[in-house]
Design goal:
The chain is mainly alpha-helical. The protein has eight helices and four strands, in the order ααααβββααβαα. The termini are far apart.
């Protein structure tokens, strides 16, 4: 890793660690509800850190990041409006500004997750379709831990008591299609911060699940 890139990663990891350390302490002290009202700001900051640490951002990279973000938003809009994509659900108030009942940040979150998981598996010596399948599976595992947290803290809510299996199947298929395009057209995808972002976020979700006694 070049020195400039290494310095970027160290600075970003420091910022990421400080932010989530504050989060861990806030949850431990019983202030999770207040903290989660800042989720949209946190998502935007994490996405910015991810882009800052991308090995190379050219027009193709930027175009695909924007394409995934817009597509993610439109798919969620279709999902909320029809209930046929993920199941019947509605967004709450803790993901920031909404357009047509869907938070704008949800598209950014799709792009962040797609490019982070793509970066994590990009170095594997396997075909792009297999990379896409593995990265999509990582995204579904991420969602398994996110769902109980999202429901508890008013990110979104489901019409049914349990999260429908349809949600996870749709997540995998949509992520796989997005990732297939990204692996085909975007190079390089390497990002030294990606693994840290997903690991810290997953650890935070697990802490919330344990502290709040959450389940699906």
């Amino acid at each position: 890793m070049m020195k400039a890139q290494l310095n970027k990663t160290r600075l970003s990891l420091l910022l990421l660690s400080v932010i989530y350390l504050v989060g861990f302490v806030s949850v431990a002290l019983g202030h999770a509800d207040q903290l989660m009202q800042l989720s949209a700001v946190n998502l935007l900051f994490v996405a910015a850190l991810l882009l800052y640490n991308a090995e190379k951002i050219d027009r193709t990279y930027a175009a695909w990041f924007l394409l995934v973000a817009v597509s993610g938003y439109l798919i969620e809009l279709a999902g909320v409006s029809t209930g046929v994509v993920f199941g019947s659900y509605a967004y709450g108030s803790n993901l920031g500004v909404k357009l047509f009942e869907v938070p704008l940040m949800i598209g950014v979150n799709w792009a962040m997750l797609v490019f982070a998981t793509a970066a994590i598996v990009s170095g594997l010596k396997i075909k792009n379709l297999m990379k896409a399948a593995i990265a999509a599976s990582v995204m579904v595992i991420y969602d398994l831990f996110l769902e109980p947290v999202a429901i508890r803290f008013d990110f979104w809510s489901w019409e049914t008591v349990a999260v429908p299996l349809q949600n996870y199947v749709a997540w995998w298929i949509i992520a796989f299609v997005m990732l297939t395009g990204v692996f085909r057209f975007v190079k390089p995808l390497r990002n030294s911060l990606a693994i840290f972002i997903l690991s810290i976020q997953l650890a935070f979700f697990i802490l919330l699940i344990l502290v709040e006694g959450l389940h699906h």
